[in-house]
From TrEMBL:
Major subcellular site: cytoplasm
Main EC class the enzyme belongs to: transferase
InterPro entries (alphabetical): Depp_CoAkinase, P-loop_NTPase
Annotated ATP binding sites: 12-17
E.C. code: 2.7.1.24
Organism: Zobellella aerophila
Lineage: Bacteria, Pseudomonadati, Pseudomonadota, Gammaproteobacteria, Aeromonadales
Superkingdom field: Bacteria
Pfam families: CoaE (PF01121)
Record-given protein name: Dephospho-CoA kinase
Amino acid sequence: MSFIVGLTGGIGSGKSTVADLFAGLGVEVVDADLIARDVVAPGEPALAAIAEHFGTAVLNADGGLDRRALRARVFEHPEHKDWLNALLHPLIRERMVAASKAVRSPYCLLVVPLLVENNLTGLVQRVLVVDVDPELQLTRTMARDCADETQIKAIMAAQAGREQRLAAADDVLDNNAPDKNALVAAIEALHRQYLALSAQHGRP
């Protein structure tokens, strides 16, 4: 079993940047968001179940999932969220575990935006939180997604609070600085730490 570091943080915290920097050090990355897309790809049983439950209006012309339409349905009828989560979460978890077991690097990074919210910390040996001031989180996300402030604030409110994430953290990366130099140095230090921990992992 690989040594697994769970990477999490709020929207706009810089998880993708951090994951890319670790990948540049030769660390394999398992991304829950990519897996979530794969389980609803055309031809997957989950997509057929979604179309049966919500109707073909949640499908694009090419038969793929229309995420915007699905979000609208779930927003209008919150009870659908529970149904959707019950369908998708076990599938995503199963694939995350399988992908983590298949890694060849000394340790892997499991990137899960809702690691704390969905009680998935049991899947990892360390929890690494990317921490950003909420104001910066908001401005970065608005600039990145071209979304309005109200929408981003609603997403932030639905996620775990900053204090809740930090309470679950074994390690914290401060990503408030405008340049990457401090972040790169911190990641290199954590990389050395995780290599040492992974070498101890599984020893009797």
